[in-house]
Amino acid sequence: GTIGDYVWTDTNGNGIQDAGEPGVSGVTVVLTGTDGNGNPVNLTTTTNASGNYTFTGLVPGTYKVTFTAPTGTTFTALDQGSNDGLDSDAMPNGMTVSEVLTSGETNTSYDAGVYNPASLGNYVWEDTNANGIQDSGEPVISGVTVVLTGTTGAGVAVSLTTTTDASGIYLFSNLAPGTYKVTFTAPTGYTTTFPDKGSNDALDSDADRTTGMTVTEVLTSGENNLTYDAGYFKTGTIGDYVWTDTNGNGIQ
Taking the model in full, what pTM does it have? Predict the structure, then answer.
């Protein structure tokens, strides 16, 4: 019999082999188990240039395969969708379930999807001139609460919270590909500045002035989006006094 199939980059993290998502070459795949006579079997191969692997000439028996995720990657969600030929079968440890292979059976449905974790973040600053742009010399704001919400490509809800550091920086890392937004909590005494000013998205403010939320961002495998910023300013006061200058000397 034969066991095998495919390792691919799950760009959108939905656990399904979508059109255009590339195969991954050089992935180590180990087959272990016992044949029908009780003899142990241990075979190793690697995926080819197209991401395919095959174990052939197998005696009927009970087998499983274990994939080694390439450095820096994570296995995608398993058993997604309704087509077993297009899903991922690797558990977080890289192993599949056991397969009972019968005489002459060819099972080419043991796949593994991997992705590079994504990240999202950037910066909170005091917009001293309220132009909505991070100008040179404008100070950072530390300790601002930032909440990330959304869903992975496989539909798992995500909710994470962090705060800006002493440099005004925040970061959500090790994210599965998916759809996310962040919500900033305005520091006490500050007002949210005007969003989407200027032509450089890395230097503007992205927080809605009412809700503190950004727009939704679709993160793909390995994407590092460091453009989600929030600017704040303190409102000021102008005023004083009008009086009748009874002696006309210009002095109160």
Answer: 0.89
Burial of 171 (C-beta count, 10 Å sphere; 0-12/13-18/19+): middle
153, two tokens: 């490509």
Q: Cα dihedral angle (68, 73, 77, 83), rounded to 10 degrees? A: -70
Q: Give one DSSP letter per residue of 32-71, joined into a string.
A: EEEETTS-EEEEEEE--TTSEEEE-SPPSEEEEEEE-PPT
**Are 184 and 212 within 8 A, CB to CB?**
yes
What was the pLDDT predicted at 29?
98
* Chain position carrying tokens 């925040």: 170
74 with 176: CB under 8 angstroms?
A: yes
Burial of 174 (0-12, 13-18, 19+ CB in 10 A): exposed
Can you state the percent helix, strand and coil of the chain, rounding each to 5? 0, 40, 60
